[in-house]
Amino acid sequence: MLSFPQVTAILAFTSAVVAAKPIRDDTASTTFLLDQPPGSKHLLTRPMEMLRVKRRYNIPVDEKLVAAAERQARRMRETFSLELEARGDGQGVVGMTPQDRYDSGAVASLVIGEGEEGKMFRMLVGTASADFWVFSSLQPKDQLRGHRYYIPDESKRMQNYTFFQGYDGGSMPAEGLVYKDTVTLGNLSTTQIFAAATNVSRGWLDIPNYDGIIGLGFKDANSITPGPQNTFFDNIRPSLAAPLFATCLRSHARGSIDFGYIDTEKVDGAITYIDVLEDGWGVWGYIGNGFAIGSDSSQITQRVLRTYLDMSTSTMFTQPDIVAAYWSRVTDAHLSDEEQGYIYPCNATHLPQISFSVNGARQLVQGDAMRTESFDKEGKWCFGGLQNIRGGVDFSLFGYNFMKDRFVVHEIQEGGEEEGWGLRG
């Protein structure tokens, strides 16, 4: 175990562990419990999300998908008002919660600035991003409705540095100037270089329950120029008892991210470790080795599955024959040409389980994790939570609905990166 003081932050949006992995020691740790604010009523619809994923990875987009995403975006705007949610009382209780009632991603509260000048923001947490940016007073006023925003101090600006991230193939850009300020997440504080937005696209304005992004991916993917900057995890890692963070996400309830240690009370059974896929994408990923549809006793079909994880994505995407086989077990479920994805009757009483093998360990996903919102006014049809990206893509992208209800360790050592998988206790 490293000799650094153990520092732990638990972000609430609320085992047999290898001995070398540190566990919590109250005599050498500081634990900050974060509360869970009310969940948002905002819905990030699945066609919108599929469109973003396709554009992000430069996959051809059918105009029918664009139309489906726009149609549901209009319905969403008509249904929900862009009201700023209550943000807590500022007494050291910070929130992390699923961003909507269908667990479409994790939102954490953090403070930017020191002392009385510090201001709390709600940030979308992503493991497939290395960027840190926040809404700011540098943006046009009409972009700030429903968001808290950072007021930059010119003395903290990083001269000649800029930020630009196209997102979704350039369809949802965010750009800004770069500043250095104190960031506090739970009880962890560091000097962070990040972007204060000067302009963002309409897509970001339609999502009022967060004020920016904090990425926990790898520095290689950071979008600040002239050179990539450290992520928040990079900056706090030297002060941690161990260079890791562990996610314990839950359905419709408080979850957590622990920095610097493994909380054995959150793990049921052994943790299976696997090397992280190193391919320059800057995303936490691995090579899976099979899948099974049905009960947890179903035989695993062996297959090499290049897989990436993204907490800020709600849907699971994998290979077309796996997705087709899954939905064939649900009465009346089908691939909709109009919606450009698999849809199923919202009143379906049973959705099958599906498992994916990680280094030989079965990771079972309950059928209810595939349930999502209805997209028609009658509430008859729902868009499935398991989809195929299509376009000849040879990788899987697993989102919040895969990671929830399990314990995942993300660790960086001198010899490389690894992930650990266990069942949530």
From TrEMBL:
Example GO molecular function = aspartic-type endopeptidase activity
GO process terms (BP):
proteolysis
The superkingdom of the source organism is Eukaryota
The signal peptide here is: 1-20
Keywords, alphabetical: Signal
Peptidase A1 domain location is: 106-422
- Gene3D superfamilies this protein is in? Acid Proteases
By its UniProt entry, which InterPro entries does this protein fall under? Answer: Aspartic_peptidase_A1, PEPTIDASE_A1, Peptidase_aspartic_dom_sf
Tell me the Pfam families matching this sequence: Asp
Stored PANTHER family: ASPERGILLOPEPSIN-1-RELATED, BETA-SITE APP-CLEAVING ENZYME, ISOFORM A-RELATED
In the record, the note on similarity to other proteins reads: Belongs to the peptidase A1 family.
Q: What is this protein called?
A: Aspergillopepsin A
Question: Native species of this protein?
Answer: Pyrenophora seminiperda CCB06
Q: What is the lineage of its organism?
A: Eukaryota, Fungi, Dikarya, Ascomycota, Pezizomycotina
